[in-house]
Design goal:
The chain is α/β, with parallel strands linked by helices. Helix content is 48%, strand content 18%. The chain is elongated, with a radius of gyration of 31 Å.
């Protein structure tokens, strides 16, 4: 790290200190103790003036007397911590009160620290410096967070633009591959198989494009739901048909009895297809993926279990995050990082919940539930 960068990242140790005390002698004493340390000291004599000044020109730390007429220090502290512009300002209560109940009252008001009168100079200097450093670090972290948000928005905008432009050529490729497959009688077996695989992979790419676009639309709450009555078992059967699983057995359990729900069929179908495809992808050849739908307490639940290696505990907290990726310990394949994000947003748009269970060693179970038909309003 260069010296200039290190200096820029170093938190400030001096700053603007607002001293609030109704006794001029106390304010003068604090000024004389703090100014030689390089601090800019501003004085006010009452709580109302402190609130006004702190809102207009937020200081780096407030030294606040407790026993003042009108608004006492506890009430001023409460109001500072309740204000959007002043909540992060460190407040040090300066008081002759040293009882346990008084300190508890101060902590409940939001005080960050305490100084007992008569003030000890080394203690005052150290506590003020520490409060300013903490405040400086907080402001810097907020600035960096805003910058990260701006960068993420730029990235999302660029990805959305690129993905949107991919949709048209993918549609053309799908159409042409479909025409070639329709003429499969004139192709040798090897070529026909290659065309079928190309068509399948292109469809998967088209599904990924749709997921990415719909994730953006759902994040902006611009994807309307088309609600209708659903039989979750029928939707599971339809989803299983569109997922390639030649080397993995997909078992649909208890498919005979309907499991009624009400939702957007296309979105629910894609959620199930994503979960089944994910389970197939991370299952070993000859493995089994089990899909079951149940209904209980007004919720329709679908679970998808696999016989893969499981998900490490540290990965479960981020597995539904956008662009979050989990690599199987037995495979090198990665997902786009958006399929599960799409599932989460789509399920939550239905007023549902989604989750995953895994011991990290033998298999995983992804599940989601949405309100059953009788409990979901039109």
């Amino acid at each position: 790290m260069t010296a200039s960068l290190e200096h820029a990242l170093r938190p400030r140790r001096t700053g603007r200190v607002l001293v609030v005390d109704d006794h001029a002698a106390n304010r003068l004493l604090l000024r004389e103790l703090l100014e030689p340390e390089g601090h800019d000291v501003i004085e006010v004599a009452d709580g109302a003036a402190a609130l006004e000044l702190a809102s207009a020109q937020p200081p780096d730390v407030v030294l606040l007397d407790v026993q003042m007429p009108g608004l006492d220090g506890f009430e001023v502290c409460r109001r500072l911590k309740a204000g959007e512009a002043t909540a992060a300002i460190p407040v040090l209560l300066v008081t002759a009160l040293d009882g346990r109940n008084d300190r508890i009252t101060g902590m409940r008001a939001g005080a960050d620290d305490f100084l007992t009168k008569p003030v000890n100079r080394p203690e005052l200097v150290l506590r003020v410096k520490n409060a300013i450093v903490a405040h400086s670090l907080l402001l810097e972290s907020r600035t960096q967070y805003r910058k990260l948000q701006e960068l993420e928005a730029m990235r999302d905008g660029l990805v959305h633009l690129m993905v949107h432009d991919l949709r048209s050529p993918l549609t053309g490729v799908l159409a042409n591959l479909g025409l070639v497959q329709m003429s499969a009688d004139g192709l040798d077996a090897n070529t026909a198989e290659c065309v079928a695989e190309a068509l399948q992979n292109t469809r998967r790419m088209a599904d990924m494009v749709s997921d990415m676009l719909d994730v953006s639309r759902m994040e902006e709450q611009k994807l309307p739901l088309v609600l209708e009555g659903l039989d979750m078992n029928e939707v599971i059967a339809a989803a299983a048909r569109i997922v390639a699983h030649s080397n993995v057995r997909v078992v649909h359990v208890d498919a005979s009895a309907p499991v009624p729900a009400r939702g957007d069929r296309n979105l629910v179908l894609r959620v199930i297809a994503n979960l089944v495809d994910n389970a197939v992808k991370f299952s070993p050849p000859g493995g089994t993926v089990t899909v079951v739908a149940t209904i209980a307490e007004g919720r329709a639940t679908v679970s998808v279990s696999d016989t893969g290696p499981g998900i490490p505990p540290e990965a479960r907290s981020m597995i539904f995050d956008k662009f979050g990726q989990v690599r199987s310990v037995h495979q090198s394949r990665r997902s786009s990082g958006l399929g599960l994000t799409f599932c989460k947003l789509a399920v939550e748009a239905h007023g549902g919940v989604i989750g995953v269970e895994s011991d990290g060693k033998t298999g995983s179970e992804f599940w989601f539930s949405i309100p059953a038909a009788s409990t979901l309003a039109n």
